[in-house]
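FYI - complex with flavin-adenine dinucleotide, inputs then prediction.
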Amino acid sequence: MKTLSFIEDIGRRSPRFDAPDKARGKEKFASDLYPENLLWAGALRAGIPHGEIRSIIVDRALSMAGVHAVLTRKDVPGPNRQGFVYWDMPVLCGKKVRHAGDAVALVIAETREILAKALESIQVDISPLPVVDSIDAALSDQAPKVHDLTTGNLLKAATITKGDPAVLATCDILLEEYFSTPVQEHAYLETENGVARLDKEGILHLIVSTQAPFRDRLEIARALGLDPGKIHITAPYLGGGFGGKDGATVQCLLALAALHAKGRPVKMWWDREESMVAGYKRHAARMHYCLGAKKDGELVALKCEIDYDTGAYAHLGVEIMALGLEHAAGPYRIPNMEAKGRCIYTNNPIAGAFRGFGVAQVSFAFEGMMDRLALKLNMDPLALRRKNALIRGDKNCADITMTHSTGMAECLLRLADHYLWTDRGKWVAAAPRFKRRGVGISAVFNGMGYGHGLPDYAVAKVRLTQSGTIRVYNGVSDMGQGNASTFVQMAVEILCQDRENMELVQPDTDRTHPSGSSSAGRTTYTYGNALIKACTALRDKLCNRAALMLLMDDARGFAMVPGAVRHLATGKEISLAALAAIMHPEDRLCVADHLMVTTPEMPQGGEAFSLGFPHLIYPFAAHLARVEVDELTGGVCVKDYLAFTDGGRVLNPQTFEQQVQGAVAQGIGYALCEAVQTTQSLISTRDLSTYILPTSLDLPDIQSHCVETIEHSGPFGMKGIGEVGLNGPLPAIGSALIHAGLPMNRAPFTPERILAALQGQADKKKEPPCR
Amino acid sequence: MKVHLPESLDALWDLLDQHPQAGIMAGGTDLLVSLRAGKQHLPTVICLERLAPLQTIEPLDQTLRIGAGVTLTRILENSLVHTHLPLLHKSVASLGSPLVRNMATLGGNICTASPAGDTLPALYVLGAKLSLASAKGRRILPLESFIQGPGKTALAKGEILDSVIIPFPAGFGVQHFEKLGQRNALAISVVSFAALIRTQDNLVQRARFAWGSVGPTIVRSPQAEKALEGNPLSLEALLRVADLARAAVEPITDVRASADYRRRVAGNMVLRLAAL
Ligand SMILES: Cc1cc2nc3c(=O)[nH]c(=O)nc-3n(C[C@H](O)[C@H](O)[C@H](O)COP(=O)(O)OP(=O)(O)OC[C@H]3O[C@@H](n4cnc5c(N)ncnc54)[C@H](O)[C@@H]3O)c2cc1C
């Protein structure tokens, strides 16, 4: 008997399975790989946001010693198109560039230094076209088209309707506001990278920092006209993803380079500046909200118009807009809504998936409306939210019945009891000289899973190895959120094993099964559900095989214990190694799948979205921020932060807390300082000295509490909380500011904007009234 | 690129003589950033880190002489700095991050001559003098005449900054430094402000102010200083000073902030003195 060992089962605050190897530097990220004999590949970026390519002269680069190939559009074997749904993004641009980060040539060289020189030596002649640098520019009548759409630069427009939005005009209280949110950068530590090699059998092997290895295989195959069966992708742990590695980054370029590398491995690794110019970002949004309510605070109707700037390519812009509309009125009971959305092409950097997927933007708007309503009614802002909070059986603003776990009201209730809320009056009054204090709250939600129309499934695989260990084959990337570790924890729970007896394989298109992307708060949920089935099947099988060996009639009365299967009545045991020795390798394996449930309901107008709309299950959160504003500089400091999160049952309090802490930190950055700035669609915040991420000195202590509901459809009762935490900080801080007399409609809340607000220079434009 | 690590001043003078195009590197936290960005190309770099005479902190007659190669972390840990130069201490503590301060030197911050250099406002109001050394000998220059513009100094070819001589500000009861960056660490100043104030019977007897990041070099305003003298540190008196400060600064607009904002804050920061 080992004395200190314990089973790290479900519910336990256990350290991550991968923590020791990561702490020791033993775990290899894609960027750590330097295979022998490698070549470097790099893309030449257009540098011009909109233009027609006249010529690309590569002779000088080609003649340089150590340069193996210089590729342009004509060297791309397939249709040269990538992108999830719209396939609008070239691997290498041939005729036209649509944003400054477009790739126009690909160089393969012996070293990184030669690569840089060769890229510099290429002469690209692009005749500039007028730049579509904003939503307004894109929608103007004379706007040049970024793509050849009959709808101009309008990629998609849709309206979803619930009830009779016309009642808005007859409401006791009618409020109207405009809000806007900035472009946010994912800014992961590990920038986009991978290595690729074409082997003698013609199989293309890629090891990539990616959230979606299985989809990548299809993307590469389609873009380059290859057989997906001949593409093998491995996804090691990622040094951050947040949505930015969901979709092709280096994949197609790397694959193309490998095709021209004569079997040598090729590495591509964007530096920070390239990641900034070529990587995906969060959509900037502008929102026009009209909210109607009764005198007692009951919400009656919302009309809103939400525009998303998707930049040069669609990526998941339409799906992101769909989520914005779905969440447009917040986690509240509101009988009437009309939400109009537009997703618009510009020449700005490409916007794509990002934690909080379209919802982070509207959270600022709907919570901003709630605070304004509370002020208007002279009502406690928390009471107002509690009065309207969704409960089981309600229909949400997208007309979906809340049939699953719904902890919104409970989150608010817990927050109402917390000293950071109850003591707020005293705290605000104690503001030092030249400081102004405010306490704000927010109530947020975020649909989880892919949603209707995009089957959300996973296939889990678990094996008893020859040596008697249990190996989990994780099929969904772990970008740092800890899903892989939780999978081990689930297997440990069901199979009753020590961690020392567990092994873990990371996603690999040869060894693990397609299980979708690491995204949408679905990762642990969907794969976990499949894994429970696989582990249960393996447990039953092992008990059964043990019964055979111990000459028992059947497997009743057997249980798994660490390292063995035991017959409880007699105490007889057979070790897993002994069992493994007699079982056929194929018999030591269990595979099971899971398909997430979706809602059969569809709001009016929702048919416009064929993929991922609407959702059935939502995690909820209530946040609180205590904010201090410097009246002399406009600086905003978040002094205390509090988050109550309903993620169903908590499988590992530590991982849960890490998700909340990370999301809140990223959300505070979104609220206070993060903004990709562009001038004529060229990025002026080109690196991390001008794109401002919060540091540890900019973040308060963040208290995280779980509000445990039970999500019956989820593995052990959980639902995914990776995203919801990001949606809270911007509205909570905005709420604190408005209650300190500083209504802010534009994020981030930079000192300059705050100082202007302090001096009464509202940053609101006057626009037409609600129709 | 060739890198030399001389271990004596004589070896340094020889190297400087042989490689007139060489760059000088102390902590490298400015130089290496500019090299990576391709803003300069250097065939040769000569490092100062092994030169013992640049590494000392010594008191002398109500002054402190800090070797140009002393790292900012060592300055923060030095008890004489802590006791006698709290203003310098505060400004150094606001610079970069612990990692940056472990490498960065005081000499480097001065020779970079950035209008945003965070030790500069403090060193200006403290009346720091610089000791410049070369094969030919030494000369002493007030900091204000050493810095000539953004990135421009009075350093001659073959010359280095060897130490910084800082008088203890005797009798100055108020030693105030404030930095506003876009965040609380690893931030380039948007506006910074240093003040030394001596009072008697609650009236200001002498005031010295300096602002960073609001002009091509550190901005002083004798008018603003004079305007406060003879007055109490009241909001009323400071409001007048703030106006003079706004008139004295010449800020620019960049990706961090607008000129207008910087001007307003340069004045507002003066008001903070009322809250001390
Ligand atoms: C991440 C980061 C954050 C930063 N944050 C701040 C900040 O908050 N505030 C701030 O003011 N600065 C900041 N800096 C800039 C920099 O750290 C400081 O200016 C630092 O003091 C420079 O010192 P160094 O020893 O590294 O200089 P180096 O980079 O070695 O040298 C800088 C310049 O001075 C010259 N030089 C250095 N020493 C001498 C000498 N003794 N004689 C002659 N010439 C010399 C060099 O030739 C070079 O031109 C930051 C830099 C980084 C990378």
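Residues B 23-31, 33, 48, 68, 95-96, 100, 103-105, 107-109, 111-112, 116-118, 155, 160-161, 186-187 surround flavin-adenine dinucleotide (CB under 6 Å). The longest strand of chain A covers residues 299-311.
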